[in-house]
Design goal:
Number of strands: 8
Largest sheet: 8 strands, mixed
Number of domains: 2
CATH class of the largest domain: Alpha Beta
CATH architecture of the largest domain: 3-Layer(aba) Sandwich
Radius of gyration: 19 Å
Shape: globular
Helix content: 25-40%
Order of helices and strands: HHHHEEEHEHHEHEEHHEH
Structural class: alpha/beta
Length: 299
């Protein structure tokens, strides 16, 4: 059995460099040039990049054909956005005709990859109807390659993309098989989008963010939904802005809870990469599911 690498197997400076690469601050060539100094014992810079990059098969928890989940691809109209947005819908098979709470799932900055599809199926097994829209729909959808996905993502018209997410939220909330309550969860870029959705949708019933950028502090007063915030322990790029936004949330009387997981890296919930932290991810996910159940399922 092959032992999976963890964040502790890499130098912290290399992890910071990889984070910059993932978020487009450094291109592939720049990463490889700067990562060369961390290459040793026969491991090349390209080998380091491969080791840090996602392995979707290793992280898959629920197979796409799992009989416990009813899943399908759907296309949603988005007249104020790019015209349409395609996404992955997953619902618990056991629900039958029973109405279930809905959760909008917002991906990282690579579009709707297999990991986020798996997240949607996990939510379905926990009793929710999950819809994960693909922001890359207008440029052909997730291309099956993370580098190509990042490149495509950088070309998006972000105002139109946000309108696409609003259209996806409206479509999901209006579904007749939903119970009328809707939450949202997002990771990295998606965490930032969920923070923004909480300011844009006064009827959002619950919002969960994983290491996402926060809106300007002056927008905190627009948040009406209860908010659960999950932050990594080592993530200066995201964490630096949190104190000001937290103070604004408190001043606005917003109901929120924030947890910072010591010793973790940005992306600690993503079990397809070495930055994954199993203990922190389980705790954060348990909190997420409990939060959704308490806010989306009527007593």
């Amino acid at each position: 059995m092959t032992t999976r690498l963890t964040a502790h197997d890499f130098d912290q400076e290399l992890l910071i460099l990889f984070d910059a690469y993932v978020h487009g601050d450094v291109d592939r060539r720049g990463f490889l040039e700067r990562a060369q100094r961390f290459a040793k014992a026969g491991v090349t810079a390209a080998g380091l990049l491969a080791a840090l990059s996602p392995d979707f098969a290793a992280g898959q928890q629920i197979k796409p054909d799992d009989a416990r989940v009813k899943s399908e691809w759907v296309t949603v109209p988005s007249p104020a956005g790019h015209g349409t947005i395609r996404g992955y819908l997953a619902r618990p098979t056991s629900a039958g005709t029973r109405k279930v709470p809905a959760v909008l799932v917002i991906h990282e900055n690579r579009g709707l990859n297999p990991h986020i599809e798996d997240i949607a199926r996990r939510l379905a097994l926990d009793g929710f109807m999950a819809f994960a829209p693909d922001a890359l729909t207008s440029v052909g959808g997730y291309p099956g390659d993370e580098d190509k996905a990042r490149t495509a993502f950088a070309t998006l018209d972000q105002p139109k993309t946000r309108a696409d997410f609003l259209a996806a939220a409206a479509w999901l909330r209006a579904r007749p098989d939903g119970n009328g309550r809707m939450g949202a969860v997002g990771f990295c870029y998606g965490g930032g989008i969920v923070h923004w959705l909480a300011t844009a949708l006064p009827d959002l019933n619950a919002a969960v963010t994983f290491y996402g950028n926060t809106p300007p502090p002056e927008d905190a007063a627009k948040v009406k939904a209860p908010l659960l915030v999950n932050l990594a322990g080592t993530d200066e790029r995201i964490n630096a802005a949190w104190p000001a936004y937290e103070a604004a949330l408190k001043a606005a009387g917003v109901k929120f809870a924030v947890y910072q997981y010591a010793g973790t890296q940005h992306g600690f919930n993503n079990d397809t990469t070495p930055r994954y932290d199993p203990a922190a991810a389980k705790l954060a996910w348990d909190r997420t599911i409990g939060f959704f159940k308490s806010n989306l399922i009527p007593l």
